[in-house]
Amino acid sequence: MIEIYFEQTTDAEKLFAVFTAYKNEPSLCFTYDGDKRITIHIDKKAMEMIQTTVIPAMTQFMFRFIEDRLLLSIISNDFYYKNVEEQQQILQLAHSFIDGERYDYRNGKQQAESRETFIKQALTEFLSDDISFSFESFLYFRLKNYKERLLHYVELAIDEYKLEQEYQNFIQTLRDCLVSRPAKLSIIHLLHQESTFTFYDEYFCEISAKELRKLIDRTLIVNQPMYIDSSVLAPLVSIAPKTIYLYTGNSDDGMVQTIQNLFQERLKLYDLDFFLQSKQAYCKKIR
User: Fold this and answer.
1) Which InterPro entries match (predicted)?
2) pTM here?
3) Which of 20, 32, 80, 250 is least enclosed, having the fewest CB within 10 Å?
C-alpha cells in the first residue's frame, strides 16, 4: 500500500482524478479519503503496476497541475518578478522553450534528458509498496534535477523577456522620432528579396546605397541606445516617408516585422510578385 498526503485538498482531488482515468485492475486500486490522502492498494504480485500505471499517472499530474506552479515560484522567488502580468509573460516564454519553439542558445542543442525522464527516475527510486509520504516533501527533496531544468528554462525565458522589453522600447523611441520628423520623400517602394532590401522612390527609380547614406540623419544613429541598422532602418526613419510599399515573399522575416511594428499604418505590405506588376502599371500610366 502507498499513501500520499497533500497540503492542499485540491491537489489530492486532481491526482485522484488522474488516477481514476486509468483502469482499475483487481491488483491495483486507488482510494481517496475526501480530504488530503490518496491510498494506492497494490497486489504484491503486481508491483510492476507502479511502473506501468502509478508513475505515468503521477508524471501526467506533475505536468498538468504542478509544473506551472513551480515555474511561477521560480519566477517570483528566485528572480523577484512580482507583477502578475510580467510573471505570465515570462511563463509563456518558458513554455515556448519547453515546447521546443525557441532554440536553447546557451547549450546550443536539445537537452539530452527530458523533464519526463527526471520525474520518472525520481519516482522509480522512491516509490515502493508500504510507503507513506508527503507529496510536498517529495517535491522539495526528490526532484532536484527536474527543478534545475525548470530553472534553466526560466533563465532563458527571462533573458528573452528582457530582450523583448528592450526591443519594444527601441521601437517606441523610433516611433517618437517619426512623429515630428518631416518626410524627405513622400513614398518609398521597398523590395525585399532574401536578406536584401532595395529602395525605390515614388517613380520606381532605384535609390542607390550612396544616395541612401546621404539621406541618413547621423544624429539618429549616435543618439540611439540600441544599434540601428544603417542599411534599412536608419534610412527609413531618416526619410520618414508618409507611405511605404513593402514587397516581400517572407512576411515573417525579422526586419519585415520590425518595419511593420515601427511604421504601422504607414506601411502597405504586398507579395513579392506585386512589385513588378506595380512598376509596369506605373510605366504604362506615364506614357
Assistant:
1) Spore_YtxC (IPR014199)
2) 0.83
3) 80
